[in-house]
Structures are given as C-alpha cells and as structure tokens.
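Open question from group meeting: does this chain pack into something compact, or does most of it stay loose? Before anyone orders reagents, we agreed to write out a predicted structure and look at it together. Recording both the input and the output here so the notebook holds the full record.
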Amino acid sequence: MRLTKKYLINSILLILLLEWAFPIGFISPTNVPKVQAQTTKTLLQPSDFTYLGYYDVKFSVYGQGLTYRYVNGDLRFLTLTWDNGQGDLLEFSLAGKNLGDSIDTTTNTWPSLMSMGGKLDGLWWDDAKQRLWTESAISYNPNYENTNIITQTLNSNGTVSNVHGPISLEGIGAKRVFGGAQNVPTWFQQLYGVGPYVVGWGGITSLLAEGSVASLGGTMYAIPDPANYADNTIIPANQFKILMDHSSGSTSYDWYSSGSHPTSFDRGERSTVPVNYFDGGDTRPNGNCSGCNGTRPTNPPVPGAGWLSPAPDGIARWTWEDTYTNTGNWIDSTTKTGFVTVADLAEVMSGIVPLIFVLIRNNTKFIFMIPKP
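Structure tokens returned:
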C-alpha cells in the first residue's frame, strides 16, 4: 500500500509510505518467507493493513513524537508541542471525531516534560508497565551525544513521577536513537538471545556525519529493561545487540565503483528512485546568487557523484532527507509478524516535507507518524 504525499500548511495531513522490514534485514515484498523457528507465522505484507484516513491535528508538534494509549477504554494520543523552549506533552482523544475532522482540544497536559531546543524526540507508551519512554537527540550538534533514554509515570493531575534515566548505549550516539521504543516478542528474545525492548529507527538529522553520526537507513538496538540500570548508566556494548544500523553509509562514500554489494557498509534501501543532489551531485556554490544552489537545479546530478540511485545492484538508496522518525511498530499476531515503519522520503527532487499524521491499522496495532518539519 503506497499513497502519494500531500502538502498542508500549519496543520497535519495524511501521507502513507509503508516500508516493511524484519529486524535482521530487509525483506522483498514479493518474497514472503516463514519466520525462522516460527513455522506458522509469515511476515506482514501491505495487504495486511487497512488505511483508515486522517485527522487534522492543530497542535504545533514541530516534528516530535506520537504514541497512543487507552484511558478507561478511550483511545488517547500523546505528542509534544513547543512552549518557549520546553516540550509540553499533550494528550488528545478521537472520541466524537470523524475521519477528516480537526482536533484542537486536549484531554490532559504535562507541562515542560522535556527540553526541545533543536531536538528530535521519540515517544512510546509502555502499556504493560504504564510508563512513557522518551528518546531525544540534538539535531544540529557537531559533538558526540550519548543516547538519551528516559522512562516516567504520567500522573492524571498533569505531573510526572518515577522519572528514570537517562540511560545510554555504549558507542551508539543519540542521532541514531530518537524513534521511540517497542516490545520484543518473547519468541524472538529466546531465538536470538536479545533483550525485551528495541529502540532506534534512524534517519536524517542536521550535521548528520558529525558528532553522534546519524544513520541513513533503519536502526534498531535490542536492549535490556532500562529499569535495571541506575540513572546516567551507559549500557555496555556486550549487553545489547545491534539489529539494524546504516550509520556507516553516512560517512563513507558509495561502494559503486567496486560493482558489488558491500558487506561492511551501506545505506537504507527504498523502492522509489530519488534524484540525489546531495553527496556532490550539485557543485554550484552555496547561496542565492545567480548560479548558486539557492534555486532548484535543472541539470542532472554531476556524473560520478556519490550515492546516485539506482545503485549498480538496481536498488535505490536513502538520501540526506529520508527518515523513519517515530514510526516503528513491532506487530506479532498468532499468524503474522514483522517490524513496520512509515518512511518519510525525499521527493524526486530532494526536499523537506511538511508535518504529517498517518493513521492506519491492522488487527493488532495502530500505526502512525509525525515526521520532520
């Protein structure tokens, strides 16, 4: 299922660009293998999802996270809004609303939940333990920043308690972990010897090749419960597992001249083919002068530029405008399993896409996104 991007100013519209990936690699949509050691389960496919529509959410979310929970049976969504440099956590309900309606009222607010200055923030509601997970990364940051995983309890009176963290991952910078978190199915934990949670997702940041180094492709790290560690702990590398990481493709030049798919580094794959003017594709000087790159290029990217698509293997690669943001959902039913993300991808001419709210579902979970501004 793949819908065309649509634009909207000062509100949130719908876009659905579904990418499906199993946590240990990308799966071709034409190949539906049985999951190892789970002979009764097959990987999720686009046909397993139903597009519901959209809601026009009027809050100023500035590319922040989105998650949901149920309160006395009522479906509630949680997101962040900008308030003088602080992020207020807002909760809103769909009760009484029809698809396509505007939403401009809240059911609760938690003021100044976190600092938001130039940050990318991911949210996830851990229903089993009734706690909110947050991860954040300073986007325009030339310096290394540790992963920032925090959990806390949301009290009904607009306060928080049991704040725990930050917890970090050794050698994994914050620019690779700002997408929220998910539970790991028990069978997967046992089969691969991994922890009960995953964090990550990956995508564009400012200064992506500097400091913490962003990942131009999906990221996923299986981790223990952060509650088992004291505040400000850096979890040693031997206590978590890397399931996906494409950060090497952010700092390495493409592998195209070798003619063979690399085993040591790459970028994420995408089914649409972008015209990539990043990576040396546009050699005009910066600025708005005549002949500068302040205007849209009219010529093709410079021959020999990096990471042009499609690659020699016929598959397109991520550009400096692609991201999964806060969209990862691990779905595990009795017959189907898979990790699903909603990709915010650069257009044919790479550019920034406005705020978006997606609402689709299968029989198990809602899936949604609020990508970068």
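Observations to bring back to the group:
The chain has one domain: 18-271+320-367.
The chain has a mean pLDDT of 80.
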